[in-house]
Amino acid sequence: MNDQTLMKLPVFSLPQDRLLTLNVDDIPVMKDALGPGVNFQPLLADPEAGLLVAITRFAPGAHVPAHLHTGAVHGYTLKGSWFYKEYPDQLQTPGSYLYEPASSVHTFCVPETNTEETVVLFVVFGANVSFDETGKFHSVLDAITVQNLVKMCSERQGIAEVRYLQGGSVRYTTDK
Hints:
Low-confidence stretches: none
Strand content: 35-45%
CATH class: Mainly Beta
């Protein structure tokens, strides 16, 4: 608790006994978790709120199948470049901010000519419903799926515990 929480405010607020903060450098990369060359670091996975926040890392030439967003998505490119197959002339580069409304459909692609990994911060509401190249259902990616992917990837990579924020009463997955 800090001194500011001791004051009497004219509004109700949730109790908070500590600052919920993470350093990306302390979070291991879940390798090939979302397909070959598609890695991520979980920051927040809250199934109850339908919210997922992650740093996603893409190798040159990596792609994500066509997918439909059930909720809005915010993307901020930190490094490298990428585009949607449906909009090849709109290359996303460092500093690009992208808003994707719910029900949008697209295919994520990283140019094979990239010389470095592409790093994007994604804030995802709802789920990504993915389809194969024939339009058949492929998979769902949402906060609960990510929680399970973190468990599977950390076991496969020999990582004891991965610390990120999770839903319910928002908390860390593990204490330090």
